[in-house]
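Support request from a user on the community tier.

User writes: "When I paste my structure tokens into the form, the page sometimes reloads and wipes my input. The last time it worked, I copied everything first. Here is what I submitted, just in case something in the input itself triggers the reload:"
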């Protein structure tokens, strides 16, 4: 256990016949920011709800901050923060009041003004929840999730529905939480978000972990080659063609490019738009979950 905030082994959960989690192993070190990715229905919500203590696993070992979350002990609930996409907050409550109210449940709460500053709502303390813009509302949700000074914060799709500027602001906020030493487990559908925020990315598909690595290493194994297709060229096996652009991933790009370049030179053809580069996290993700 020691330095691990989360430790899960052999986790299984079925809804009737449907197996949602099929032997998941997961470790999150203290202070780590982990992004959980996966297509719709992969089991992300089920996994996170088990870690939060909102759902029971059928089998497997789960330890979160040294607790079994299923027991929902007070000492456990006081040390985690959950930021959901929607909180059922009273629309008439004022921002400061909401933070005082939520904070009262925690022995170690942070100072309300400090938290307002942290989420950039220092000017909105006296506003009612219903008077906030969508982005401000999400910042209030984040503030409510951290008012109890939790060690581990769960963030559910923290920037879904945000405009680009609001997303950047949220990223800064989350970076701020990292600097406070918090362990963060976030679910997201945005690859650039995982790339920007996470120390490590875990990809879940059909209830199992299919990748678990740093964002950089996930893309390091392969090279992506693409160019505009010309008549007569023989594409390597596995190449995809979309709107006239051929793309393939290669673990031996020199070997795979040689025949293409040789052919192009012999026929005096320029391969338009030729690019050879590292795959984006999105390329890797699409390939993994295909
Ligand atoms: N309460 C439930 N009863 C029955 N089936 C469920 C229940 N909750 C989830 N499922 C099923 O379990 C699977 C995993 O669902 P889960 O919500 O954990 O996936 P997810 O990765 O969070 O998906 P999304 O990205 O769409 O939120 C899905 O096939 C879903 O239909």
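"...and here is what came back when it finally went through:"
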């Amino acid at each position: 256990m020691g330095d691990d905030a989360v430790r899960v082994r052999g986790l299984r959960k079925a809804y009737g016949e449907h197996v949602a989690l099929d032997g998941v192993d997961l470790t999150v070190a203290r202070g780590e920011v982990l992004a959980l990715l996966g297509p719709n229905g992969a089991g992300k919500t089920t996994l996170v709800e088990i870690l939060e203590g909102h759902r029971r696993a059928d089998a497997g070992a789960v330890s979160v901050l040294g607790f079994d979350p299923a027991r929902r002990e007070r000492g456990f609930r006081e040390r985690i923060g959950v930021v959901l996409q929607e909180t059922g907050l009273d629309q008439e409550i004022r921002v400061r009041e909401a933070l005082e109210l939520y904070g009262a449940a925690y022995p170690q709460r942070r100072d309300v003004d400090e938290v307002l500053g942290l989420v950039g709502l220092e000017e909105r303390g006296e506003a009612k929840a219903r008077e906030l813009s969508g982005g401000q509302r999400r910042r209030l949700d984040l503030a409510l999730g951290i008012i109890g000074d939790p060690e581990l914060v769960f963030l559910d799709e923290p920037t879904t529905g945000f405009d680009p500027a609001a997303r950047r602001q949220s990223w800064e906020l989350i970076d701020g939480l990292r600097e406070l030493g918090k362990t963060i487990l976030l679910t997201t559908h945005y690859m650039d978000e995982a790339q920007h925020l996470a120390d490590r990315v875990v990809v879940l598909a059909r209830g199992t972990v299919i990748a678990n690595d740093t964002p950089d290493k996930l893309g390091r194994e392969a090279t992506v080659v693409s160019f505009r297709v010309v008549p007569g060229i023989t594409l390597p096996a596995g190449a995809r063609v979309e709107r006239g652009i051929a793309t393939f991933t290669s673990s031996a790009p020199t070997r795979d490019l040689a025949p293409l370049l040789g052919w192009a030179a012999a026929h005096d053809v320029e391969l338009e738009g030729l690019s050879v580069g590292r795959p984006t996290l999105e390329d890797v993700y699409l390939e993994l979950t295909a």
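Agent notes: The reload is a front-end session timeout and is unrelated to the input. The radius of gyration is 23 Å. The longest strand covers residues 4-15. Escalated to web team.
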